[in-house]
Amino acid sequence: MKIQHQDSDLIVFESALFRTTTSILIGTDYILLVDPNWLPIEIEFIANWITLYAQGKKKYLAFTHSDYDHIIGYQRFSSFETIASRNFVENPAKEAILNQIRTFDDSNYILRAYDIVYPKIDVMISEPTTSLVLGADKYCFSQATGHNSDGIIIYNESTGLLIVGDYLSNVEFPYVYDSFSNYRTTLNTLENILTEGNVKILVSGHGDVTASQDEMHTRIRNARKYISDLQYAIEKDIAFDLAGLLAGYNFPQIMTTFHEANVKLLRQELGRGINPGEN
Ligand SMILES: [Zn+2]
Hints:
The protein has eight helices and twelve strands. The protein has helices at about 40-55, 70, 85-90, 95-105, 180-195, 215-235, 240-245, 250-270; strands at about 1-5, 10-15, 20-25, 30-35, 60, 80-85, 125, 130-135, 135-145, 150-155, 160-165, 200-205. The strands form two sheets. The chain has a seven-stranded mixed beta sheet with strand order 1-2-3-4-5-6-7. The longest helix is centred in the C-terminal third of the chain and has 24 residues, at about 215-235. It starts with a strand and ends in a 10-residue tail after the last helix.
């Protein structure tokens, strides 16, 4: 499995699928594993790393959100102390999410040595922001909805590591399943953390880690621009420059599908009807 980033505080593994990241934040007396994914051989690679290097340490497992690619490895690490949002715990679509995993495994002849189970959460993040101390490190967890309805941002204030889930990716424009209004709020939350905190490294759920403050702010700007351009096109009933958007990314077929779903949702939010021209 590709190790995308490694230093004394952080390892970021990258799956062969969708460039999905798994993070391990390394404390002196604990580790925090985030979103272990996708393939069995990749999950075992991560588990081996933990066996070799995290012996005797307290083990936490956090989920940035409940999209099936981010919870797919849960049961392999189910003895860890788990952390996720209240909305994650109360998600009414648990069975549908598990069925996405079953469909994925079935379609690809994938056998796993563990059951497919929705994560049982020990520490539930209920407030807009919650401070927690893990080992000797101070963390701030923030609600982050918009992409989906149960996201959290994980910020290690002691080391400056910021794990954002499916926001601020350099390989995807915003995928909005929950709401654009919530997505904008989350972008504001992220900007506040960048401005007020001392962020050293940002890890997105898909794509490249960045240690550049400029790059972090550029990613926020790009996300806001996509949303405002899309809103402008819908409100003025003019064509959105899809070719221009796709030129910045690698996977035009699937990304057209995600963009079209965004258009549909934003039209609904703006009260514009489902199809262009149908106000
Ligand atoms: Zn994802």
